[in-house]
Write a structure and sequence with these properties.
Layout: E1 3-5, H1 11-27, H2 35-54, E2 60-62
Antiparallel strand pairs: 1-2
Length: about 70
């Protein structure tokens, strides 16, 4: 996904938010006890990531949700 900062956006804050989303996603790469557990973990990550990116909502323009 292409994310475009809006003019005047603080790129440092945007980078920190996206870096945090990426780090969390990498930490989720592990075996799960069941597919359902993996799905729930993914959905929690997606929700938290969307909230993190929506905090940058004034600064980001994307074709889809950030997560």
């Amino acid at each position: 996904m292409l994310i475009t900062p809006r003019p005047g956006a603080d790129r440092k804050n945007i980078r920190q938010a996206l870096s945090g989303v990426h780090t969390t996603a990498m930490n989720l790469q592990r075996p799960y006890g069941s597919a359902f557990e993996g799905l729930l973990t993914y959905l929690e990550w997606a929700t938290e990531s969307a909230q993190s990116c929506s905090g940058q909502g004034e600064a980001l323009t994307a074709g889809q949700a950030c997560a």
